[in-house]
Amino acid sequence: MKQITIVADDKVGVLADISYILGKAKINIDSLTAEVHGGKAMINISVKDEKKASQLLAANNYKVIHSEILIVMVKDEPGELSKVSKILNEAGVNIESLYLLARGEGFSLDAISVDKPKKAKELLKDYLVKGE
Q1: The domain spanning residue 43 has which CATH number?
Q2: pLDDT band at 64 (very low <50, low <70, confident <90, very high)
């Protein structure tokens, strides 16, 4: 799955504007996180048509950065995330971002962005959600 990171000045209405642009084009947001650092908003979104979304956002003067994310399913119990991160660490794969997408009965779905996605896919094949 592809992730788009939008970097914008932190001001009122940025998220409203981005979601309006995508909604008007009938692009559904599958996941979203947002945070602010040093006056800049970092908004991470996942969409089905990342190319179209990127073009629309860039045309509206937003800085767009692309990255691939892996969706993993882990047991929802203490230490499970540690197992996944240890596998990547021991292979020299750096986790750039990680966020919880959903929790179910006994499991959680996490989105992970890494510096070596191809290698990470192989290492985490037992954790990857089908279709990844």
Answers
A1: 3.30.2130.10
A2: very high
Per-residue pLDDT tens digits for 72-110: 999 999 999 999 999 999 999 999 988 888 888 899 988
Q: For residue 110, what are the β-bridge partners?
A: 72, 100
Of 6, 130, 114, nearest in space to 60 by CA = 6
Q: Is residue 128 part of a domain?
A: no
> Which distant-in-sequence residues (6+ apart) come within 8 Å of 112 by Cβ?
69, 70, 71, 72, 84, 95, 97, 98, 120, 124
The answer on 56 and 77 residing in a single domain is no
**CB of 71 within 8 A of CB of 111?**
yes
> Model-level pTM?
0.67
Distance between CA atoms of 18 and 56, rounded to whole angstroms?
Answer: 10
pLDDT > 70 fraction of the chain, expressed in percent and rounded: 98
Half-sphere exposure (CA, 13 Å, Cβ side) for 55? 5
